[in-house]
Amino acid sequence: MNPNQALWEKGDFTRIAASMRDSGEELVSRLGITKGLKVLDLGCGDGTTAVPAARLGADVLGVDIASNLVEAGNRRAREEGLANLSFQQGDASELHELDDKTFDLVVSIFGAMFAPRPSDVAKEMVRVTRPGGRIVMGNWIPGDPTLVAQILKISSAYSPPPPEGFVSPMTWGINDDVVERFAAAGVPEDKISFARDTFVFNAPVSPSEYLALFKSYYGPTMNAFEAAEANGRGDDLLRELDALFNAQNQSPNNDATSIPATFLRVAVEV
Ligand SMILES: C[S@@+](CC[C@H](N)C(=O)[O-])C[C@H]1O[C@@H](n2cnc3c(N)ncnc32)[C@H](O)[C@@H]1O
Q1: Is the CB of 104 under 6 A from ligand 1?
Q2: With a cut of 50, which residues of the chain have pLDDT below it?
Q3: 53 CB less than 6 Å from ligand 1?
Q4: How high is the pLDDT of residue 180?
Q5: pLDDT at 254
């Protein structure tokens, strides 16, 4: 199986996505979505951004590599009675099932950044956007001191080195790399803008219990624990991540977690 697909079908990302609903909805409310807008949500998971976009009246297609998340997304669309929202399986590096110039808005919030071959991903996003349309990406930033960049940094110290030629997803958080990828897809630099933005993870459990969800259900963290445990270092990884989650928590309530994380918002005019 495609290793990228296997990584994201491992565990159950819906358990983490449940803590991302507030910020997903808030972010979508700032995207200028109008009734009938044709939106593609790439690497959509179970619909953190696709569902609120559809609630605002857009015609939304969610595409994700993980079949369990596509299924979960379609279930949410059915439960909410959103006939203008559907999910299907696909790979952001190779969207052969989607026609050229189809979407007014392509959104990818912490999604397409995880696909292999980033230059192909940029080309595919540009190809399926209609001229005059927009692409909006949310990408984690390498070296950033907030939660997700730190989880990935700590985890990598316990994991085997990536295969030869692997391009880190975190490079999507570097302006120059983003410009280079979209330039190769035919978009000039002055059509690309960047802003720092914040996404808040909210969960009705303590930070240590919230970390336990990552350990049991978030593919990248599950893999890090498997690698650490194979080397007798599972407890060290748990201690480091537990300190991180507790230090980043801003909830005044001991039984709740609220952790803001900084990301790079990229907007591209096609
Ligand atoms: C961190 S999750 C974010 C999900 C969703 N955007 C959200 O905010 O809840 C990353 C998502 O990207 C998807 N993904 C990873 N590689 C992909 C690829 N090559 N093509 C499409 N989706 C991919 C994963 O399956 C997963 O749903």
Answers
A1: no
A2: none
A3: no
A4: 98
A5: 87
